[in-house]
Amino acid sequence: xxxxxxxxxxxxxxxxxxxxxxxxxxxxxxxxxxxxxxxxxxxxxxxxxxxxxxxxxxxxxxxxxxxxxxxxxxxxxxxxxxxxxxxxxxxxxxxxxxxxxxxxxxxxxxxxxxxxxxxxxxxxxxxxxxxxxxxx
Length: 136
Ligand SMILES: CC(C)(COP(=O)(O)OP(=O)(O)OC[C@H]1O[C@@H](n2cnc3c(N)ncnc32)[C@H](O)[C@@H]1OP(=O)(O)O)[C@@H](O)C(=O)NCCC(=O)NCCS
Fold this sequence. Notes:
Strand content: 35-45%
Strand order of the largest sheet: 1-2-3
Number of strands: 6
CATH class: Alpha Beta
Largest sheet: 3 strands, antiparallel
Number of helices: 4
Bound molecules: coenzyme A
Order of helices and strands: HHEEEHEHEE
């Protein structure tokens, strides 16, 4: 995780602060879903759609899983399910933005059919954001 996404030296964001942001923040409360394993019935992260920077009316796919479950195909499975959901909801195209250094996320996006476009945003501190897209 880049430094701005980590829990800081004073312990923020706390669990209570995260709970509050999930309840009140539009970004979280719109179309992000909890990812739950059917067999274990534990919540391991989120996957869904957010209004992003792609194009108007074409949301972004977003996902994040707990580190302890990485590398077992869960992000790919969850992303595929969200693509089906987006298609049946009438969307014709989705976007996904990803840091150029985020190999795991870029691999997940490639596996579910996203392709990179010419669009990118270069941030000298955090890296380059790549814009990828997928027709449904
Ligand atoms: C990105 C993330 C959701 C992937 O979750 P996951 O369940 O491990 O993903 P999957 O198992 O479905 O697929 C991961 C793929 O990346 C590959 N991969 C992972 N780390 C890699 C690395 N360092 N180098 C090369 N490939 C890597 C895996 O081998 C796998 O590909 P494969 O199936 O061809 O072998 C998870 O790492 C995460 O939560 N990261 C932090 C949040 C984040 O970056 N979110 C996305 C923001 S755009």
